[in-house]
Write a structure and sequence with these properties.
Helices cover 42% and strands 15% of the residues. With 368 residues, it is of the alpha/beta class. α1 runs parallel beside α12. The longest helix has 20 residues. The site of flavin mononucleotide has 14 residues, from α6.
Length: 368
Amino acid sequence: MAPGRYQMYNNNPFKLGLFGANCSSGRAINKLPERWLADWDSCAAMAKLADDAGFDFLLPIGRWKGYGGPTNFQGVTYETVTWATGLLAVTKRINVFGTVHAPLFNPMVAAKQMVTADHVGHGRFALNIVVGWNEPEFQMSGIRQREHGERYDFAEEWISAIKQMWSEDKPFDFHSAFLDLHSVVSEPKPDGRTAPFIMNAGSSDAGKAFAMRHCNGFFTSFREHDVKKSADFVARYKADARALGRDIDVFTQGHVVCRPTRKEAEDYFHYFTTEGADFEAVEEILRLKNVTRANTPDYDSRRKAIPLMNIGYPIVGSPDDVAEKLARIYGAGISGIGFSLVNYVTELPLLAQELIPRLTKLGLRAPV
Ligand SMILES: Cc1cc2nc3c(=O)[nH]c(=O)nc-3n(C[C@H](O)[C@H](O)[C@H](O)COP(=O)(O)O)c2cc1C
């Protein structure tokens, strides 16, 4: 545990975060009139509402190119470290992550960008390291996307160099397979000279092993139909980390639709994942995975599934239903959740008024 990093180590047993608000449409591939536009004023309003409600973190998506369709899904995105810096300036308690593509950011520059954000927020910046996903994003940058395993080898050197910049007072050299840095100095250090909370969400063995060595938090999927499997995975992952002398919290991600009644919530969820979905963007997501009608016999069912898959675990219902589902996740040993909403500003007040008190009663949140 990093002393001085109070906010991610506060006494809320189950951490709550909002995921994806730096991107237009968030994570819901929808074309509803109220869809999230991710303009700055809305982002700032969302951050203040979440901060006042006691949320623990905001987690943006590192995305550089939209998926097309009438809404150009995730076509408008703020760069995440600058987004975090701005939001840290207008909030008081909440942590804000940068989701940083290691291969796209020179480590000397990234180390200082993150420290700048961290000082603006007095120790509330956190880092989600990503190594690369969509090829067209890399093509725009002119930087070659490495083979999969090598992506994490590079990230390992990148974060090791940055951690040294964050802690080392004397000039140092960093020579490794990918980096050749001479007489490196980096001042100031992060707030309180403690490293920001670091997260990774890899799903491959290489990604999981990387997180175990370098991160404080790891993202995994929650299996509603096999809670025991999720609980076993979390227990094993944490035990393996402990064997390496590391303490790692496991988080998950999902999408919340909370309405005064279960029926309202279910109807809305059904609508924006079917008729209200932007299926042209869905088709582009499938094309990037090399899934086309020509090469995939069950193309139509795959196409139908994407609006659901893209938002992760659906948490849909009345405030009682949502609280109960979150309690089940907590029961599996998971330390917190980053979830998306269709509209982060209009949907937060109900969560603040109705959900948080229920979570406090269930023991997931510390009494304010
Ligand atoms: C919660 C979560 C957030 C993620 N955020 C991003 C992101 O913002 N940008 C990105 O390029 N990849 C993102 N990813 C992808 C992961 O970093 C990772 O590349 C992906 O899960 C595949 O795992 P692998 O790299 O181990 O193969 C995210 C994944 C998850 C589960």
